[in-house]
Amino acid sequence: MKTAQPLTDGRRLYNDQFKQAALDQVDAGISVTKLAQLLGVSKVTLFKWKKERNEAHQLTNEAQTVEVPTGSKLVKSKEPVSAQNITDDLLERIRVLEEEKSILRKALQILACSMC
């Protein structure tokens, strides 16, 4: 299996499978220094690959976070949320807001009449 393709500026281009296999070894407990020597890759390169993987993993986790309406605010949740639950929560929120609007209109009418 080819692990790297030389680039014109002397660097090598490693495929994703090679990078993943190297990071699996780091995760298994092999030191970065020792693995870098074994693979002929710099420690900096291994740390860069690890950082890129962690950032990609973090973005994936953030994409799975859903803002769920609860009462008067949105709450972030990683729990699976059904569309029906969200719809029910939103309808309840609309009902509460309509009730608040009605109360404010009545209060405004009372205040307006008291000024007459």
From TrEMBL:
GO biological process: DNA transposition
GO molecular function ontology, one term from the record: transposase activity
Protein name from the UniProt record: Transposase and inactivated derivatives
